[in-house]
Amino acid sequence: MPSNPLDDLINEEALERVDSLFWEREAGRRHIPLPSRHEKGLWRRQQTTGSYVLTDAGILQTRRLLQEDAKWRRERWSFWVTLMLSLITATTGLVGALIGLAAWHGRGVK
Question: How far apart are CA 86 and CA 8, in angstroms?
């Protein structure tokens, strides 16, 4: 049975809408602004529903912003982990030195 062009269009637009909604929600979840609907080439109005969906260029721009945000979050987390590990290492070294001094001092008192 031959496919109906209208059914094909509806199916294609439904897939585009699902893809667009995924990236819109992902950006919203991380408080990343979506491109303006007035920016040419980043949004497209669907023929069958009239709703706006991100174009490939719009998705690409949104993905880049999400990747930059993820990189920033990793770097921020990495900074604090490194700082805390450095403080723990320094504290351990200081405690070890104090124990060594106390043991050395205690041996000389006898």
Answer: 60
